[in-house]
Amino acid sequence: MADKGEMDRAYDCVKEEEISALNFSKKRIEDFQGSILKRLKFSWYDRERGVRVRNLALPIESVGCYVPGGYSPYPSSLLMTVVPAKVAGVPRVAVCSPPMGDGKLNPILLVAADICGVNEIYKMGGAHAIAALAYGTESVKPVKKIVGPGNRYVTTAKMLVSRDVAIDMPAGPSEVLVLADDSADPYFIALDLIAQAEHSPESVCGLVTTSKELADKVVSGLKKMVPNIGRADVVIKALTQNGFVVICNNNDEAVDFINDFAPEHLEIIMERFDRVIRRIRSSGMIFLGPYSPVPSGDYCIGTNHVLPTGGSAKVYSNLSVMDFTKRVSMVKCSKEGLRRMMNPISTLARSEGLTNHALAVEERFKTSSSRSRPK
Q1: Which of 99, 110, 215, 217 has the most CB within a 10 Å radius?
Q2: What is the mean pLDDT of residues 270-297?
Q3: Residue in 174, 218, 212, 216 with CA at minimum distance from that of residue 196
Q4: CA-to-CA distance for 242 and 231, rounded, in angstroms?
Q5: What is the pLDDT of residue 71?
Q6: Same domain, yes or no, for 150 and 184?
């Protein structure tokens, strides 16, 4: 486990502009997640019946945040997992991330952990890190819930331990689909496909369009650009193994494909995106227009880049403060309010054969002498 001394020394290795960027992103995430939390806490009052209900959002006792490593350090993933937990009020937040070749964690990761107020940070990664968070070891105390993205092994491990500890969602290798028409700039599309491909060779990148001309321009642009970019080996593997172009006959066909694929990220770059947006039902996050690329959401918009993958966006949502809370309803009913609801309560209870449910309400309104008290 990294100690406070290591975190303090890490600041000497991180640029001021990087620290500033971390703080900027943290503030954006805090503000957005805080606005969600406020909406989870509310009161509902039925004045006529004297019934008051409060919806509480109570923090989970402890969470483990997995921050991937491997090809690069991901301080942004630390922010995306830890900040919502802290906004929710989780008292114990543990982070684990694979160390570098020298056995140490990247300094910028340690600085991000310190800025976010992480309670524990462990130098471990892969499926065994998930197991340690779930079941504990001599040096790692288990947590109540595990969140965060990872490769296929990490994702599989999360699914396996989900029988014993809560998890957020399947958040595996990165995915992006770009839905575009003739109005889109093929250069921008190529840049965005490359940006997602550089995550890992397992990244999935696709263009969906009704324009063969646009598709040809994007493919041609990729062939020219890729040999001269950074991380070209990773990008080439990803695009070769998992890159594709789908040319559809019309927008209806394109929307059907997207909803069936349920991508982690969906960019819609169309002149009239309003014609399709209402029909998109399955996507982890949607980016509209040429100036809303996926990297904006990865870092500084304030939304979360921990998103469902592998088709799970059909039923899962992006990580948020809601994943770190337990929603509890607190009810207070007046005597007159309960009296007014007694008949429908009794009717429903007896229809289910639960006579004692009905009596628990009815007996409250009988006189002392007429109550059917057990002897």
Answers
A1: 110
A2: 94
A3: 174
A4: 16
A5: 66
A6: no
Residue range(s) defining the domain that contains residue 128: 4-169+320-327
- Same domain for 65 and 33, yes or no, is yes
Tens of pLDDT, residue by residue over 245-257, are 999 999 999 999 9
- What would you report as the CA-atom Rg of the chain, rounded to the nearest whole angstrom? 26
DSSP state, 41? S
Q: pLDDT confidence of 375, banded at 50, 70, 90?
A: low
Cα–Cα dist 106/111, whole Å: 9
305 catalytic, yes or no? no
Reference 211, options 230, 240, 184, 236; nearest CA is: 184
CATH code (residue 112): 3.40.50.1980
State whether 134 and 13 are in the same domain.
yes
Tell me which DSSP letter residue 91 carries.
Answer: S
Catalytic, 357? Answer no
Number of domains in the chain: 3
- Any domain includes 244: yes
Residues 21, 163: one domain? Answer: yes
The answer to whether residues 187 and 95 belong to one domain is no
E strand segments, 265-336: 265-269, 285-288, 325-333
State the catalytic residue, choosing from 198, 265, 267, 305. 265
pLDDT of 140-153, one tens digit each? 999 999 999 998 89
Catalytic residue among 264, 267, 362, 363: 264
Instruction: Clarify whether residues 19 and 140 are in a common domain.
Output: yes
Q: Tell me the pLDDT tens digit for each residue of 5-23.
A: 888 899 999 999 999 999 9
